[in-house]
Each structure stands twice: as structure tokens, then as C-alpha cells.
Amino acid sequence: MARGGFEALDPCVHCGFCLPACPTYLATGDESDSPRGRILLMRALERGELPATDVALQEHLAHCLGCRGCEPVCPAGVGYGRGLEAARERLAQANGIPRLARTILGVFRRNSRWRPLLTLARWFRATGIPAALSGSSRIGFGMGMLASSRQDRRQVGTSGLTVLPSSRLPDLPTAALFRGCVMDTLFRHVHDATRRTLEANGYRVVEVPGQSCCGALHDHAGDRDSARALLAANAAAFAGKADFLVVNSAGCGAWLRNGLSETSAPLPVRDITELLAEAGPRVGAPLPLDVAYDPPCHLEHAQGVRDAPLAVLSAVPELRVQRLPGAERCCGSAGIFSMLHPEMSRAVLDDKLATIIAARPRPAFIATGNPGCVMQLGAGLRARRLEIGVVHPVELLDESYARAGFYHR
Ligand code: SF4
Ligand code: SF4
After folding, report:
1. How far, in Å, is the centroid of ligand 1 from the Cα of 4?
2. C-alpha to C-alpha distances, 179 to 205, 283, 348, 366, nearest whole angstrom
3. Distance CA 131, CA 56 (A)
């Protein structure tokens, strides 16, 4: 049975195998920025040996990406992520949540707040100003993140109405699309590609009203009450609506998969690549491109979904897919981490960018299944003036299907 809270840290034998897998330890070389060091800090917090007000304790735990890259390499099965959740909840109860994080989380607590703000951001993106101002300064990087959320039209076409497969039958498996907040405003092209590719693989996609932000950001920051309230609202909205809840954002998927499995009417949560992989997926038309697959931490480590994205990409003939060294390490995005801790976030990103730059052949696209990763990697590549696009894997399959004539967009 899974151990909850601080108890999940019990098996740690302090061997240090997790250190080379930790992006923040690699960035600073400081043991207190490593999983092993943070576990000692969390245990001291639990036992009252360090007060929750200890500044160094707060700082080292705040600088953890929550990427859980330390979990799969741990021979003792330490549940680092569950320990971190418990520690952050205790810190939030004792100290409150820092003002900037509180403001951001407050926006995402209500649809009436995030929707107009992100819609404005989408309009601003359409002016082309964010793309023109993207760069390596703090503002330039933020502009690059927004610009990178836009569909890359070099290889991936425009979205539009789907011509549905004529073979559609009423007893097809149904998948309710989780729309989310950032995905539903800045990444609608990924939702469109999700719907089209699922339908082309024999699923019926169901739109469910009454959805909200998933609450994963709140959970990561220790605001468990808001996280649970948003989870409950989504559980009520989706109850009985479909065979699966399909998610194309790894961060949302990790939180929903865990949370919705514990509700009274559990709905199986699947990443889009899992549903497509289960269906085959159908093979499309060739796309002769070099692509590097970069797995989101919350897909690979938190949900254990490793092969399905590669199965999706392998359904595209002539796509040359590579997995770069260190691909399993976080890109530094980590929800709102990149806004709260930009220096650490950029230091972690630099490590990944160096690998991408050194890759031969150099990829034309990075494929990754999480909006934060798309924006973080995209902004980093723009800051270096590198002509490498960042897309969701399903966009490549969608393009392949459109070229094969499975549907018109
Ligand atoms: S978390 Fe696991 S890998 Fe890291 S020090 Fe503890 S037992 Fe070793
Ligand atoms: S969750 Fe990520 S950043 Fe935090 S200790 Fe583990 S590997 Fe390091």
C-alpha cells in the first residue's frame, strides 16, 4: 500500500543514488538542494527539530522542482513526492503562501479570473509583439514563453473543423476531454489535434461543461484546500460522462489521475498518448523530420507513462525520433516554479538546452506533452535564437493524419 505524507520518506537509506538525477543538485552542487538533503530537512521539520519558520529550510524546499526525477532511481522506493506535499502543506500552514504565489493561485482558483486574463494573453500573442520581444532578459523570457505557446505553423497546419470518420458507431469508447485553463486558452490547437486523432483512432470525444482548472498548481504550492476544492468540482463535472477522462497536459494528468482515483465515482484518467497507443495508433503519412522527444516529468515520473508517447511518434513514418541524454531530467518549468524562482529555473533549463544544441542531427522539433515544458523550452530556444520548434507529440500525429487525408482541418 502507498505510504502517505512524511511516512513515504521512511525507506530512505541515504545512499545518494538520487543525487545525479536531481536537476537542482546538478545546478548548485549543494547537498541541501538534493533529494537526500531535502529528505533530512523534511524529517527535521516533521519531528520539530527545525521550526517551519527556518529560512534555509524554506528556501531549499522551495527550490525543489517537485519533478520526482529522484523517485525512479531510488532503490529503496522512497515516495519523495508525497513527502514533499506533506512538508509544503505544513510550511504553508505555518508561514502562509508567499504573496506572488498566492496571487497566481488566486487567479487560477476561479474560471471568471483566469479565462479573461489568458484570453487577453492570447490576443496579445496574436499581435506578434511577444515573439518580437522574446529574449534572455526576465521580460524577454516571459515574452518568449507566451510566443512559444502559439502553434508552430512551419510543419503543423491550422486548426479548424474536423471531417469525422464515416465509420463512427454509437458504441465507440468515449473520452471526455479535460480542457483545463492554460490548455483551453493558449493551446486550443493541441485540443483540436487531440480530438481529431482520437476520433481517427475509434474514440468518441465528449465535451463536458462545468470544468475548472485542475488544482495541480495549488497542490504543488501547499494550498491543499484549493486543490481539493478544484478536484471535487471537476469530479462532479465529469462523473458518469465517459469511459475515460483524456488529458493532454502532463501536470494536470498527474494530479487528476491520482485525485480522481480516490473519489466515490472514479473515472479512469489517461494521457492522450496512452489512449492513442492502446488503439494502435493508425499509421499516417510520412513526415521526414528529426525530432527529440523530451518527456515531461509529470508524465514519465509521476504517471509512469514512458512508452506511449514514443508509440504515437512511431505511427508517423519517416519521423526520426531521438531521446537525448538527460531527457528524463526536468526542464525547469515545474508549474509556477519558473515564475517564482527564475534563476534556479533558468539554471536547470540551461543544462537541457546544452544537450539540445549538441545533438546531432540537430532536431527540427522538440516534442513534449505539457504546456509549461513547451513554453519553457520554447522560450529558452528563442533566447538562444535557435530555429527549433516545440510541439506536443499529438500535433505531429495530427499533421501526419491530415497529410494522409484522414480528415481536413
Ligand atoms: S531517496 Fe532513495 S536514492 Fe536518495 S538517498 Fe534516499 S534511499 Fe538513496
Ligand atoms: S523532485 Fe526533482 S528537484 Fe526535487 S529533489 Fe527530486 S529530483 Fe530534485
Report:
1. 17
2. 12, 26, 29, 23
3. 38
CA pair distance 341, 359, nearest whole angstrom? 28
From first to last of its 409 residues, the chain has per-residue pLDDT tens of 344 589 999 999 999 999 999 999 999 999 999 999 999 999 999 999 999 999 999 999 999 999 999 999 999 999 999 999 999 999 999 999 999 999 999 999 999 999 999 999 999 999 999 999 999 999 999 999 999 999 887 655 444 434 444 444 568 999 999 999 999 999 999 999 999 999 999 999 999 999 999 999 999 888 989 999 999 999 999 999 999 999 999 999 999 998 888 776 678 999 999 999 999 999 999 999 999 999 999 999 999 999 999 999 999 999 999 999 999 999 999 999 999 999 999 999 999 999 999 999 999 999 999 999 999 999 999 999 999 999 999 999 999 999 999 998 8
Ligand 1 neighbourhood includes 36 CB (under 6 angstroms) = yes
Q: Closest ligand 1 atom to the C-alpha of 15? A: 8
284 in Cβ contact with 401 (< 8 Å): yes
- The pTM for the full model equals 0.93
- What letter would DSSP give residue 3? P
Spatial neighbors of 236 by CB under 8 A, at least 6 apart, are 210
332 Cβ closer than 6 Å to some ligand 2 atom: no
Residue 352 to residues 320, 324, 332, Cα–Cα distance (Å) = 20, 9, 9
Output the furthest CA–CA distance in the chain (Å, rounded): 66
Rg (CA), the chain: 21
**What does each C-alpha distance from 237 to 64, 110, 248, 250 come to in angstroms?**
33, 15, 18, 20
User: CA-CA distance, 97 to 222, in Å (whole number)?
Assistant: 8
